[in-house]
């Protein structure tokens, strides 16, 4: 079994925020793979099902971003899921828009959702990093991530979510490098990105 956790803030007020792109990508995965309807469990909205023959639990924590680790740790303990079978989808300021990177462990780059998960669960889980770009001024980070995507960004946001949904079976199958490379080939074909290898920066 493996766990997919999208990071974001709950409720319609935040639904379109850049900070919620993890929720958006996970929603696309749930729809594409026809996971069971969401129900409230583990301080989250959660769906279960199978992807590539592997059982999966998908979590949308309702704890707000800063307490995401409470939800993830509760689900991990209940199902006895090891840390290296946990994949967290989250927004990444340090990547340009429409970039997808995958890494295991590492720093949290000031991301409060990741910081909470690391504190509650340990650090060696997989990060599915979804680039949203940086506003260029540290003082603008908070309003930027809590601002909605512009209409002009819809194309690449949808493409990133589709890439995650299309290739999640590779994560389930234990082929993370192939997931990243296939996602980038997909995005590159649409004019959004270029392929890079797991762990490569930028």
From TrEMBL:
Listed EC numbers: 3.1.1.29
Site (Discriminates between blocked and unblocked aminoacyl-tRNA): 9
Gene Ontology biological process terms, A to Z: protein quality control for misfolded or incompletely synthesized proteins; rescue of stalled ribosome
Database matches in SUPFAM superfamilies: Peptidyl-tRNA hydrolase-like (SSF53178)
Site-annotated residues for Stabilizes the basic form of H active site to accept a proton: 91
GO CC annotation: cytoplasm
Subunit structure: Monomer.
Function: Catalyzes the release of premature peptidyl moieties from peptidyl-tRNA molecules trapped in stalled 50S ribosomal subunits, and thus maintains levels of free tRNAs and 50S ribosomes. Hydrolyzes ribosome-free peptidyl-tRNAs (with 1 or more amino acids incorporated), which drop off the ribosome during protein synthesis, or as a result of ribosome stalling.
Similarity section: Belongs to the PTH family.
Protein name (record): Peptidyl-tRNA hydrolase
Organism: Xanthobacter tagetidis
């Amino acid at each position: 079994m493996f766990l997919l956790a999208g990071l974001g803030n709950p409720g319609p007020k935040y639904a379109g925020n850049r900070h919620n792109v993890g929720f958006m990508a996970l929603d696309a995965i749930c729809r594409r793979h026809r996971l069971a309807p969401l129900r409230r469990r583990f301080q989250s909205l959660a769906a279960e099902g199978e992807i590539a023959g592997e059982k999966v639990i998908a979590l949308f924590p309702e704890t707000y971003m800063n307490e995401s680790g409470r939800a993830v740790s509760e689900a991990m303990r209940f199902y006895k899921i090891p840390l290296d079978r946990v994949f967290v989808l989250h927004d990444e300021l340090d990547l340009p828009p429409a970039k997808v990177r995958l890494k295991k462990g590492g720093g949290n780059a000031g991301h409060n959702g990741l910081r909470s998960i690391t504190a509650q669960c340990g650090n060696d889980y997989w990060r599915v990093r979804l680039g949203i770009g940086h506003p260029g001024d540290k003082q603008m980070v908070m309003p930027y991530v809590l601002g909605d995507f512009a209409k002009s960004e819809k194309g690449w946001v949808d493409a990133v979510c589709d890439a995650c949904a299309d290739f999640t079976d590779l994560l389930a199958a234990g082929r993370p490098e192939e997931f990243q490379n296939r996602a980038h080939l997909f995005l590159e074909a649409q004019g959004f990105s270029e392929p890079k290898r797991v762990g490569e920066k930028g």
